[in-house]
Amino acid sequence: MSMPMFAAGSDPGANFGELLKRVGMSPFAAQSDTNDLTIPHATTCVAMRFAGGVVMAGDRRATSGNLISHRSMEKVVQADEFSGVAIAGAAGPAMEMIKLFQLQLEHYEKVEGQTLSLEGKANQLSMFVRSNLPAAMQGMVVVPIFAGFDSLSDSGRLWDYDVTGGRYEERDFVATGSGMLHASTVMRVAWRRDLSANDAIKLCARALWEASDADSATGGPDSLRGIYPVVASITKNGWLAVDDTALAEIYKEITNEVGLR
Amino acid sequence: MSMPYYVPPEQLMKDRADYARKGIARGRALVALQYQDGIAIISENPSTTLHKISEIYDRIAFAGVGKYNEFDQLRVAGVRAADLKGYQFSRQDVDARSLANQYSQILSQMFSEAPKPMEVELLVAEIGTDKSSDRLFHVLYDGTVLDEHNYCVLGGDSDAVATRLKSAFKPDLALNEIVKIATSVLAGSDRKLSHEDLEVALLERNGRRRCFKRIEDSEVQALLG
Predict the structure, then answer these.
(1) Sign of the C-alpha dihedral, residues B12, B13, B14, B18?
(2) The domain B29-224: what is its CATH number?
(3) Which CATH number does the domain housing residue A187 bear?
(4) Which pLDDT score, from 0 to 100, does residue A27 have?
(5) Which residues of chain B have pLDDT under 50?
(6) ipTM of the complex
């Protein structure tokens, strides 16, 4: 592999996607007609703000038609130190988009010597979603949530997207995927401006529980295999994933509570 | 009719080498040293924004001396090559040796074919899983690659700095000790360097994915005591 160097006029700068195009490794290359294929769809993800930042959570199930094709998918991933992405939609393009997005943030940081602003990161993701539009028209829809801690405003911020790359900043909470209706109802009822990090984590876990209870394509906590949703908080100290023992405890509480009603 | 004049190739190469060496000698020196938790790279650099030392990949750092715009262009090319390779294959496949070889190709080509050779010297450092797998590749202006051990000196007055370092260096020192040694060998006997004159960065064996760490000015001050 030779070292990529460019003339001043055609230099891709810190744009990794553009760099891939220049060297002939274009991301999101044209896809064949995949209408008749059953694509594993990744499913319910939520994010909400709390006093010190944001919490993100997502279930682990991937389905292919009626089949559960994967039980431990990670649909909520860390994008960089202060942000994360949650993705619902066709698993293949979604994972590729996350990988490319993480790389873009790191690439920018190394080339420019400083990190992108949170707003800049959200905008970058919107361009990725937009460039996936031709594939989305053929059923390979990818709809992410982006959330992070904004050091400029000293608060958590979150965005959701539509398939055309439209970017919408949400004030309080957001859900995406086939179980989004159930999850957002739970959050709508219980969300308060002054939630603590712990309460926000519990509320996200509860929202996913209700979504998995009513939506067959969303996975619930799987204590048999020890697989729990991915839940993480992002504060001024960065990304912190909630570990499985703590999640097991939270879901035990929820199970008990549901058993009593 | 004007007479075409003949320059023997030996003379031509010597002139180019002198030109490059003079350019590099105008800049300040830089040292990289192994210490107990990894590799420390320390340079004399009064600027806090135009860095000589930077991150290339998870375990790889880059340092350049000489003409800033030239080594910065090479730095960006290195970040691109590394990120592309990691994207195309796997993060484990990105290594310093291959980057050093690519730099060597570019520099040797520039040295013999370009209107002027590049006035830079580069360091490609990689931190391994243990001390014995650390790598320090020193690439010269003409593309020569040196595989150095324990420590490496680049840039202006490097011979004198290397002589001083040879007697001062000890393996497995703590970070504050190694920074003090580096500062004194960079300064020499008749000068004194303060934290404001230094740029310090580390490749730390810290168990995390990204091992590169820039040491802030206040922290350097604390290390120098």
Answers:
(1) positive
(2) 3.60.20.10
(3) 3.60.20.10
(4) 66
(5) none
(6) 0.85
CA atoms within 13 A on the CB side of B198: 30
Is residue A26, in this structure, part of any structural domain at all?
Answer: no
Which structural domain, as residue segments, surrounds residue A65? 40-260
Q: How many CB atoms lie within 10 A of CB A125?
A: 26
A223 domain residue, yes or no: yes
Alpha carbons A18 and A157: distance in angstroms, whole number: 27
Under 8 Å between Cβ of B151 and B169: yes
Q: How many CB pairs under 8 A join A and B?
A: 51
Q: What is the mean pLDDT of residues A225-239?
A: 96
Q: Report whether pLDDT(A31) > 80.
A: no
Q: Do A111 and B81 touch (CB under 8 A)?
A: no
- Please report the pLDDT score of residue A36 as a whole number: 43
CB contact under 8 A, A5 and B106: yes
Which chain A residues touch B83 with a CB distance below 8 Å?
16, 19, 103, 106-107, 110
Please state the domain extents for chain B: 29-224
Q: Name the average pLDDT for chain A.
A: 90
Query: Which of the four pLDDT bands, split at 50, 70 and 90, describes residue A40?
Result: low
Question: Where is average pLDDT lowest: A37-51, A165-179, A227-241, B199-213?
Answer: A37-51
pLDDT higher than 80, residue A2 = no
Whether A35 is in a domain gets the answer: no
- The string of DSSP letters for B82-149 reads HHHHHHHS-GGG--HHHHHHHHHHHHHHHHHHSSS---EEEEEEE--SSGGG-EEEEE-TTS-EEEE-
Measured between beta carbons, which residues in chain A are less than 8 angstroms from residue B86?
Answer: 103
Place of tokens 């998870």: B58
3-state secondary structure of A184: helix
Does A211 reside within a domain? Answer: yes
Interacting residues of B6 by C-beta distance below 8 A, sequence separation 6+: none
Pairwise CB contact (< 8 Å): B81 & A113: no
Sign of the dihedral defined by the CA atoms of residues B108, B112, B114, B117, in that order: positive
- Cβ(B48)–Cβ(B215) under 8 Å? no
pLDDT of residue A41: 62
| Element containing residue B62 per DSSP (H, E) | strand B60-66
- Least Cα distance to B72 among B94, B48, B56, B91 occurs for B56
| Residue reference for tokens 């028209």 | A137
* Count of structural domains within chain A: 1
For the four alpha carbons of B109, B57, B66 and B160, in that order, the dihedral sign comes to negative
